Amino acid sequence: MENTVRWGILGTGKIARAMANGLRDAPGAQLVAVASRSAAGAQAFGTEFRIERCHGSYQALAMDPDVDVIYIATPHTLHAENAMLCLAAGKHVVCEKPFTMNAREAQAVVDMARDKKLFLMEAMWSRFLPAVQEAQRIIASGEIGVLQQVQADIGFVANFPPEHRMFNPELGGGALLDVGIYPLSMAAFFLGPVSQVQALAEMGATGVDEQVVFSLRHAGGGTSSCACSLRAQTPTEMTISGCLGRIRLPNRFYKPDHLIVETMDGERRVVAAPHLSNGYAHEAIEAMRCIRAGLLESPVMPHADSVALMHNLDTMRGQIGLVYRADQA
Q: pLDDT digit string (tens) for 249-269?
């Protein structure tokens, strides 16, 4: 097929599996290759998803001539290194969130992509889902008036041992980078760039943040109040409020299949907006649209947003005293 885009997946963990399943429902996507740190790991993943080209090293995938775009599905600490490996080999890149460990790394990856004239996008999949796009359309229509505030939380009880990546500082553990990126990125998506941020945290035994609340002021006006937790099962909802009403993304706002519109006059309606399969197909569809159009970035998740959000996370980590090895490089 002339419009087929050939995908490779770098990594074989949980997120890699989610993307492999999502690509099955993305028209024009063909998953042709996978890479693991071991040949056995790559082969097992390849057998599961019927992938012919199974590489025992990330370098081999980056050099594979039959791959157009590579999805980075490794731990946070490896994102920058892996993305730059693939870009250096001439591959387009979709990199799992958080984009990198800090803003310095993020800018370096963006600079390389622009220098190589290759497509690069952070895989903030929530932004591409139909319900979120519909919320944007409703906001643009003026139905809920000028936006003033976003409230969002995300939290679950992480019953994992200390060495698990969620709690391991060597693997970029902590609530902010793993799940706090969702309310942060989505608040900026609706209200625009963040001009000021203030965070408070409860730190855990391994030295990473286990609960964080943070407040945002947006450059174009409006404020956001957000929370993330690895200790509590929170509602995980988002409310986008304007002067004439509000939009609610209820129950797992990062993966909504409907939204609720409530206006000042008492009107309330539920808008169905189902996503394809597990939801990951939509970011792949956008990446392929951009690649076919010759774009170097997506207007839905542009480079400037990814770098700015890492700056925001850097600021919050400075406020709560969370330092990673990558910050000392």
A: 998 999 999 999 999 999 999
pLDDT of residue 2: 59
Residues catalogued as catalytic:
97
187: nearest Cα among 224, 237, 241: 224
- Residue range 199-214, pLDDT digits in tens: 999 999 999 999 999 9
Residue type, 282: H
SS3 annotation, the chain: CCCCEEEEEECCCHHHHHHHHHHCCCCCEEEEEEECCCHHHHHHHHHHHCCCEEECCHHHHHCCCCCCEEEECCCHHHHHHHHHHHHHCCCEEEEECCCCCCHHHHHHHHHHHHHHCCCEEEECHHHHCHHHHHHHHHHHHCCCCCEEEEEEEEECCCCCCCCCCCCCHHHCCCHHHHHHHHHHHHHHHHHCCEEEEEEEEEECCCCCEEEEEEEEEECCCCEEEEEEECCCCCCCCEEEEECCEEEEECCCCCCCCEEEEEECCCCEEEEECCCCCCCCHHHHHHHHHHHHHCCCCCCCCCHHHHHHHHHHHHHHHHHHCCCCHHHHC
Q: What was the pLDDT predicted at 243?
A: 97
Nearest of 7, 63, 81 to residue 291 by alpha carbon:
7
Q: Rounded CA gap, 197 and 163, in Å?
A: 30
CA-to-CA distance for 123 and 1, rounded, in angstroms? 25
Handedness of CA 2, 282, 93, 121 (dihedral sign): positive
End-to-end CA distance of the chain: 44
**Half-sphere CA count of 327, side-chain side, radius 13 A:** 15
Query: So what's the pLDDT on residue 223?
Result: 98
Which regions in the chain score pLDDT beneath 50? 1
Rounded to two decimals, what is the model's pTM? 0.96
